[in-house]
Structure formats: structure tokens, C-alpha cells
Specification:
Strand order of the largest sheet of chain B: 1-6-5-2-3-4
Radius of gyration of chain B: 29 Å
Distance between the termini of chain A: 118 Å
CATH class of the domain at 56-160 in chain B: Alpha Beta
Shape of chain A: elongated
Largest sheet of chain B: 6 strands, mixed
Oligomer: heterodimer
Helix content of chain B: 25-40%
Structural class of chain B: alpha/beta
Number of strands of chain B: 6
Mean pLDDT of chain A: 81
Order of helices and strands of chain B: HHEEEEHHEHE
CATH topology of the domain at 56-160 in chain B: Nucleotidyltransferase, domain 5
Structural class of chain A: alpha/beta
Number of helices of chain A: 4
Strand content of chain A: 25-35%
Mean pLDDT of chain B: 83
Strand content of chain B: 15-25%
Number of strands of chain A: 10
Low-confidence stretches of chain B: none
CATH architecture of the domain at 56-160 in chain B: 2-Layer Sandwich
Low-confidence stretches of chain A: 56-68
Largest sheet of chain A: 5 strands, mixed
Chain lengths: 200, 164
């Protein structure tokens, strides 16, 4: 007697799809978690080098032979954040004149825009255009950094002093105002190396 | 005469018409990868401390977490997620005769020794999350102390301001 044909032939082959639900659940949990951790407002870093290190960087930018062997002058730019506004001094002068001026408070608040504009005038008048380029090793990144040199030795430096009760935000804004000037679409370098010093 | 019942309808196999998750999965995977990449490139290791209101500044450099401290109107603290450890109380910061902050200096020296013990090169870098209301005299004391403890590169964390 012949055997009955096998039933296997009649068995439907079912489509077996990958069950994605557990993966979906995982992703749905992960996305809100990552969104909550992600910063909506981004952070940045304000690098501050205390005077000793900044001086080394500034000195590195002054080749001794430049300017026909003449010793370069120091601008000694200082911004005092006083109760009445900003006092800007150059070459150690403290008498009103071309080397000392004030930027008074505007409606009781520090006028950073005017300070920025006046510093741009100082940069053009006292520092002028770059006389050359120099490079120095950045110990942090391990790379050579190229920066402009000027007719004054400290043409990229500014010392900032403030009265004791000045909030940190005002100090940061002052550093920003002294860092660069926006001339239309173009950004011009002012005094990017800021040194925080004791108010005198 | 009544029509015979439709054979087609009766014998039609009911297909399993579940929601197709494939396109949703693709979308979710892309979002997940995007978020992971964003976090990876923005140095998510450093998070703004809830104890500090950071100032805003027009800077672009990304902060990196090194040895981190918090400077707040309540004193100087070690940067920790919860219950930050006090390094310098406000009384010491407010004392006009104090120039060096002993608690902070001890902490920094310990951290330096620890780094050297691990055989890592000591770079003298410190990350400071300083509250925008902290006054200049306090700030100078913190900077002086960091400098004395041989931390020559001080990175202040700020919130990025939109450049005007």
C-alpha cells in the first residue's frame, strides 16, 4: 500500500517579519533622554592666561631686529571699570588728553558699544596696521600659531582692572568689547589678550 | 432568485495588516544618530552646573572638562553633579586680608599630585564655572590661587552669545 502524500506540502509558509516593537520602545525612550541631556543653549570657553604666560606670548611676537633695531614702545593699555564708567589709559597717563579718556555710564549702565568704538580708534591711531607676522608655539594645542606684530610691543594686549564689587558679567563684556570690532561685515582684531589686574 | 454567497469574500484570506514600522524605525534611527553625534562633538561631558548662572560672551571655543570648580556667591565648590563640596566659604572670599584661598589651593595641589601619580602629564589647566554675579575681588582671589597652585590656563565657561 502506498503511503498517503505528506501534509507538509499543504502547510502555508508564513511571512515571518522581524518584531521591531522592542527596538522601537528602546528608541522612544532614548530620544527623549538624549534631548533632555542636550544643551539648548550652547556653552563656550573664555580662555584666560594669567599675566606671566600672556607676557611670554606677547614677547614672542616682538622680534628684536624689527624697526631698524629700535626698541619697541609699550602701549600699556588699561581699562578701569569704575563706578562712573570706563577709564581708558595708555602709556601710563592718567590726565585727560589723547592718552586718557572716559566712557561714562549710559542710562546707568556700562556703555560697551562706545568703549568698543573708542578702542577701535585707539587701535588705528596708536597701534596701526600690522608690521609683520610672527609665530609662537601654543603649549596647549602643540601647534604653531601665527599672529600679527605691531609697532608697539603690546599691540594685542589690554589690562582690565575693576572696582571690587564689579560683577563677573561686566568683566566678561569688557573683555568682549576689547577683543574685536565689527566694521560692517568685517571683524577687526582689537586687543584679544586680556589681563585681569588689581584696581589701582 | 437569491444570488449565491460570494466565494471570493468568504475565502479571502485575512491579511495581517499591522502598522508598518519600518519607515518609523528609519526616522528614529536617523534622529538617534544625529543626537548622539551632536552630543559627541559638543563635549557633553561638561554640563552647566545648576548652582551657577553663567555669563554670556561672544566666544566660539568649546569648553573641555578638566579639573573643574564652581565659583558662586555662596563660595567656591568642587564641580560635582550633586552636593558639591565646599572648598572656600564666602567668609574667606569676602575677607579683605585674604589673598590666597587655602581650601582651594589644597584641592588644586591634591589634584595635581593625583594627576602626576597616575603618570599623566600635568597641563596646568582648570575649568571654572563662575557665576555672573560673582564680584571682581573674589574672581581675582580665585585666579591668584590657581596661579599659585601652578594652574596657568584658566578656562571660564560662558554661555555663547549670538554675535551682534
Amino acid at each position: 500500500m502506498a503511503f498517503k502524500p505528506s501534509d507538509k506540502k499543504k502547510v502555508d509558509v508564513e511571512d515571518t517579519e522581524l518584531n521591531l516593537l522592542p527596538v522601537m520602545n528602546l528608541i522612544i525612550v532614548l530620544i527623549p533622554l538624549l534631548l533632555s541631556v542636550a544643551k539648548l543653549s550652547s556653552m563656550a570657553m573664555l580662555e584666560y592666561l594669567p599675566p606671566a604666560e600672556s607676557a611670554e606670548v606677547a614677547d614672542a611676537g616682538a622680534p628684536p631686529s624689527e624697526g631698524g633695531g629700535e626698541e619697541k614702545q609699550n602701549l600699556q593699555l588699561i581699562i578701569n571699570v569704575a563706578e562712573t564708567g570706563f577709564q581708558v589709559s595708555m602709556f601710563g597717563k592718567i590726565e585727560p588728553g589723547p592718552y586718557f579718556f572716559e566712557v561714562p555710564l549710559q542710562s546707568g549702565a556700562y556703555d560697551f558699544e562706545s568703549l568698543n568704538r573708542r578702542l577701535w580708534e585707539v587701535k588705528q591711531r596708536e597701534v596701526g596696521s600690522p608690521t609683520g607676522l610672527d609665530s609662537a608655539m601654543n603649549d596647549k594645542t602643540g601647534r604653531m600659531e601665527v599672529f600679527p606684530t605691531y609697532r608697539v610691543k603690546d599691540g594685542r594686549e589690554v589690562s582690565i582692572t575693576a572696582i571690587a564689587k564689579t560683577p563677573f558679567q561686566v568683566v566678561v563684556n569688557t573683555m568682549d568689547a576689547a577683543r574685536k570690532f565689527k566694521d560692517g561685515e568685517e571683524e577687526k582684531e582689537l586687543f584679544p589678550i586680556a589681563l585681569l589686574k588689581q584696581f589701582q | 432568485m437569491a444570488f449565491a454567497p460570494s466565494k471570493g469574500k468568504k475565502h479571502r484570506r485575512k491579511e495581517n495588516e499591522g502598522l508598518s514600522l519600518n519607515s518609523m524605525m528609519d526616522m528614529m534611527t536617523i534622529i538617534l544618530l544625529f543626537l548622539l553625534k551632536t552630543m559627541g562633538s559638543s563635549g557633553a561631558l561638561l554640563r552647566p552646573s545648576p548652582y551657577v548662572q553663567l555669563p554670556t560672551a561672544a566666544r566660539e571655543a568649546q569648553p573641555q572638562k578638566t579639573i573643574a570648580i564652581l565659583v558662586t556667591p555662596q563660595g567656591v565648590f568642587e564641580d560635582m553633579e550633586k552636593n558639591p563640596r565646599t572648598l572656600t566659604p564666602p567668609e574667606e572670599l569676602g575677607d579683605p586680608n585674604t589673598i590666597m584661598l587655602s581650601g582651594l589651593e589644597t584641592f588644586l595641589t591634591e589634584q595635581k599630585q593625583f594627576t602626576e601619580k597616575l603618570g599623566k602629564p600635568f597641563k596646568g589647566e582648570i575649568t571654572v564655572q563662575c557665576d555672573k554675579e560673582v564680584t571682581y575681588d573674589w574672581l581675582l582671589k580665585v585666579i591668584n590661587t590657581c596661579g599659585q597652585a601652578e594652574y596657568g590656563i584658566i578656562n571660564f565657561v560662558v554661555m555663547q552669545a549670538k554675535s551682534s
